[in-house]
Amino acid sequence: MKKHFLPLTLLLGAAVTAIAEEKPAADKPVTEKATEKKDTPQYTPNQQAFLNLPEEKRTEYAKHLQEAYRVFQEKRVFETLDELAKARAIFKDDPDALNLFGSCQVEFRAFDKAMEAYIAADKLSPDNPNIRFNIGEVYFVTKKWKECLDTFEKVLKLVAEKNIKLDPGLLRLMEFKVLLCKIKLGKKEEAEILAEKYDYLDDSPYYYFAHAAMAYEKKDEINAEEWLARANRIFNNPATLSPWQDTMVEFGYIKSFYGEDSAAPAAAK
Q1: Which of 15, 86, 95, 97 is most buried, by the most CB atoms less than 10 A from its CB?
Q2: Where is the composition biased (Basic and acidic residues) (predicted)?
């Protein structure tokens, strides 16, 4: 599970671009006519607050946040938190930093702290599917099935309505978690329909894991393991299968390496 919590695209992308736009080039004066034609960039209040910082502070912030992302990718979580603390000492209202802080807490399985950070990020960047996905993930691992179902269904609807480009594999994983939530909520017929939504030609492991889940639910472990074995043969890239396997562990269909219903050891208190 922990492998697929999502960091955001840096808020700084738009902000740093705007820094370069603050002053026109000396040899290209901006005429009144040109100014009228050019659309004024639209920034959220927190982005504008960032732009109001001195340039050296913005640069320092960007350095710390980018380093935080780098070390997080290497699973150096304590160093990530250190870089985030330095960044947030400069600017606190970046949904990127809050989202990354939440993902660090997920690594520790400190889900209350993670949810607090994700909700704060969501307030700063409403309807961002990446943040909403992470919120749904916390609901999933804390077994709040109704909240998880509602969150993931809203994300899928948001992505479809606004034509947001999200990783296709991630979309399938969300759909699979919707199926699992429906199982837990007693909506077995709806889950059966979702299990048949895609076939073996799909580019994701959805087809195999969905059928494995339905087999597990029917107490047919042999059939379930056969479906998982097929997935392993066809999708032999561990990076592709890992999020799906973690999901089955979190849901309770597969035993954890750690001997408990979790994909990682519990966080130290």
Answers
A1: 97
A2: 24-40
